[in-house]
From TrEMBL:
Binding locations of a divalent metal cation 2: 104, 167, 200, 231
UniProt signal peptide: none
Cofactor: how bound: Binds 2 divalent metal cations per subunit. Has a high-affinity and a low affinity metal-binding site. The true nature of the physiological cofactor is under debate. The enzyme is active with cobalt, zinc, manganese or divalent iron ions. Most likely, methionine aminopeptidases function as mononuclear Fe(2+)-metalloproteases under physiological conditions, and the catalytically relevant metal-binding site has been assigned to the histidine-containing high-affinity site.
UniProt-annotated binding residues for a divalent metal cation 1: 93, 104, 231
Lineage of producing organism: Bacteria, Thermotogati, Deinococcota, Deinococci, Trueperales
Any one Pfam family match given in the protein's UniProt record, by short name: Peptidase_M24
Annotated ranges, domain Peptidase M24: 10-238
Protein name per its UniProtKB record: Methionine aminopeptidase
Keywords carried by this UniProt record: Aminopeptidase, Hydrolase, Metal-binding, Protease
Gene3D superfamilies documented for this protein: Creatinase/methionine aminopeptidase superfamily
GO biological-process terms attached to the record: proteolysis
Function: Removes the N-terminal methionine from nascent proteins. The N-terminal methionine is often cleaved when the second residue in the primary sequence is small and uncharged (Met-Ala-, Cys, Gly, Pro, Ser, Thr, or Val). Requires deformylation of the N(alpha)-formylated initiator methionine before it can be hydrolyzed.
Family listed: Belongs to the peptidase M24A family. Methionine aminopeptidase type 1 subfamily.
Amino acid sequence: MSINSEAELEGMKRAGAVVAKALAAMKAAVKPGVTPAQLNDICGEVFAEHNAVSAPYLEYGAPAHAFVSVNADVVHGLPTDRPLEPGDVVKLDVTPNVGGFVADAALTVVVPPASKIAERLVACTEAAFWAAMKAAQAGRPLYAIGRAVEREVKRRGFHVIRELAGHGVGRAIHEVPEVLNFYYPNNLTKLTEGLVLAVEPMVATKVGRINTRTDGWTIGARSGTLTAHYEHTVVITQGRPLVLTA
């Protein structure tokens, strides 16, 4: 969506605040022995407190409040009852609908103790997002976001998962435009003031194709690959974007 009024901005800020609270509560609970299903329950409690509903449930019938993806799994992981183990790389992805406004964000947490490569991977993914924020300004081409992400990821020795992308968001989860995480010079669409985007670098330790797991939801890479995901919903401005979900 593109924000055209104070009421729309306030609606998106309310949705973003719910995302931030849910992610903070879930992150604080990540430790050995906790299950993704328990993290999903924590998200559900936050949603209930704020009259929020899972947008993936409303739009696609996803059987969860939040997605929790572990290790090689990248996104859309259905919460399971498998206890988390030390070293697991856990992606938490929260997308509520709050009064008709949808915000979307994700972060990656490593169950302590973390391996060096897992720490580097998570740091890389977050740094790629913030590099994109320096490039995402009104009047610039959409490809500037992907170019910034790809440069940072390559500089740190990891690999962009090219099949997955960010997107417009606001009244629905997935709106135009698609926000690639790599440089695609043919995409000359201009970023406009007020445009709301979910910018979300997804990064892997190894190159390889992804696939949808047998549960029909979870999207993952080949075994032995670690993946990370970092996302915020942002509003494009003449300067640095406004981050709604931080």
